[in-house]
Amino acid sequence: MSSTKTRSALATAALTSVQILAVLLAIWVGLRLLGIAWSVVWPLVIALLLTTLTEPPSRWLRNHGFKPALAAATVTVLSLLVVIGALVLIVVPVASQSSELVTGVEQGIAQLREWAAGPPLNIGDDQLTAALDSGVAQLQERVSDIINIGLSGVSTVVNGVVNAVLAVFLMFFFLKDGHRFLPWLRQQLPGRLSEDVPVVAGRSWAMLGSFVRSQAFVGALDAVFIGIGLWLVGVPLVLPLAVLTFLAAFVPIVGALFAGFVAVLIALVFNGFTAALIVLAIILAVQQLEGNVFQPMIQSKGLGLHAAVVLLAVTLGGSLAGIVGSLLAVPVAGVIAVLWGYLREQLAEPEAEPSPEDAEIDEESLEAAQPGD
């Protein structure tokens, strides 16, 4: 073994390791700064996601004579009306049947007690009473914890409302001035960056729009299939439950669980235990198809990512940052793919042009290969 080649290989490996550590350190510092500024970054991300859905109609209005401010204001107001209408479709039918819902819940509790009193559990009323007394005692001991949790929940709701309002205003400004961003960015950056950064930003924006539209399409599929299943079973409030399913599709994991729980509860209250099991089976089947077939296929086609990459990205994002990580995992993976693709394009060696001698040889070979007269 040559000592010179060994030292050269070790030096190259050490230099590569230092460079990798420097890149990882830069990523760690960036994530720390992102966490510090998260209160500003989160509404900015929400506004970008909303803008990807509302930018096409805003662009259409601008192309048909609307001023940018008027087009942005029109689309923003219409978007708010759509959201309010969706909420009305959920709240009004539920409120109109609130008395029946309360009666159904009471009957469901009574049926549950009768079922628990029979075999194989054979739980008597005295045991249920003792269990309730124990639960009340536990609640009394943890009143302070419950109050703190309630205050934390109120704070979370307030922060959510503030973020939503801020996101709506940011969406308006993105719709109004977003088409000027790339030209402005090209003027502000020096040298080669004035070409590279706008190209990457434009491709990332197109990728983000594809992600949000695919997520909306997947949510619509869930709402249609689950709504048809609920209608066939005879569950009431089908339209509110379908709308809730569509809206919950934008919140990974928890959204689907919440919408499914509400649908099963309504089926249990109004249609009985058997219907609730059927609804649960329908929801599980649709969610399995959506999570393992529809969503990876649609998102991988729109983002240029393999379906396995989409699944792994969602799993990794959920393990690292919970619900927010699951929501942002796929677009982050898409941005990384866009950046990597652009780097590959820039770092690829250009194909060498054939020399005149090689061209003459190719022509002679082509003439020799042609059949004679």
How is this structure best described in words?
It is a single chain. It contains 13 helices and no strands. The protein is 87% helix and 0% strand. By secondary structure, the chain is mainly alpha-helical. The termini are far apart. The chain folds into two domains: 40-177, no CATH class; 189-347. Helix 2 packs parallel to helix 6 and helix 11 packs parallel to helix 12 (307-347). InterPro entries: AI-2E-like. It is a multi-pass membrane protein. Residues 350-366 have a biased composition (Acidic residues).
Please sum up the structure shown.
Its main location: membrane. With 373 residues, the chain is mostly helical.
Low-confidence stretches: 368-373
Content-based structural category: mainly alpha
Mean pLDDT: 75
The global form is globular
Radius of gyration: 29 Å
Largest sheet: none
Helix content: over 70%
* Count of separate structural domains: 2
Number of discrete helical segments: 13
Record field, number of beta strands: 0
Region (Disordered): 350-373
Membrane topology: Multi-pass membrane protein
Biased composition (Acidic residues): 350-366
Family: Belongs to the autoinducer-2 exporter (AI-2E) (TC 2.A.86) family.
Main features:
2 domains; 373 residues; cell membrane; mainly alpha; AI-2E-like; PurR-regulated permease PerM; transmembrane helix; disordered C terminus; transport
Draw up the topology in text.
Layout: H1 3-36, H2 38-63, H3 68-96, H4 98-117, H5 125-141, H6 143-177, H7 181-188, H8 193-233, H9 238-248, H10 254-271, H11 273-303, H12 307-347, H13 356-369
Helix pairs in contact: 2-3, 2-6, 2-8, 3-6, 3-9, 4-10, 7-8, 8-9, 8-11, 8-12, 9-10, 10-11, 11-12
